[in-house]
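Lab meeting notes turned into a lecture example. A postdoc, R.K., suggested we walk through two folding results consecutively so the class can see how the record format repeats. The first protein's sequence and structure tokens come next.
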Amino acid sequence: MTSPPSSPDSLLGLALLGKTGLAFAVVVASILLCGWLAKRLRPGHTRPGAHLRLVGSTQVGQRERVVIVQVQGRWLVLGVTPQHISALSELPAPADEPAAPGTPLAPAFAERLAAAVKQRLTPAGNDTP
């Protein structure tokens, strides 16, 4: 028994489909890799079990920075240059720590904003709440 001959057009279509599938797999893998790297390298991000957290930093020269790092309830003020890192000061971490970026604002602010918007939207002379 002989197999039916394959046409060159069907082989070309299969090769094109394979190339397209491979390109799609590469794009999906790249997206997943970028997402993983973004989570891993996020500034101020602490991994479970990590005892180090970046509180803040500021540029003081072209390549010099002052960085505040929290380590086990203590703030370390560090001077950072391309050559070395120097401890400038050590402070106890304040009890009222500043809110981390991305945390919701206090409810009092939300209530005040809602009241201000409501007051702005009510017509003048209408005192009904």
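The second example is placed directly after the first for contrast:
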Amino acid sequence: MSIDRITALEETVAHQGKTIDELSDQLTEQWKIIDRMKRALESLGERLESMASVDAPAVTKPPHY
């Protein structure tokens, strides 16, 4: 193998390694966002359930009808 070919292969491997690291970082950030969204959804679900269990006032027509 020539020196130029080895250098080109080393550059390719270095770029791929950098790309893998960047993708890994993005994936980690996305999982953090997903976890936050899951917690928020669970919290909203609990609030909705608690609101549904509270007796709501009867719906009546306003006096001007």
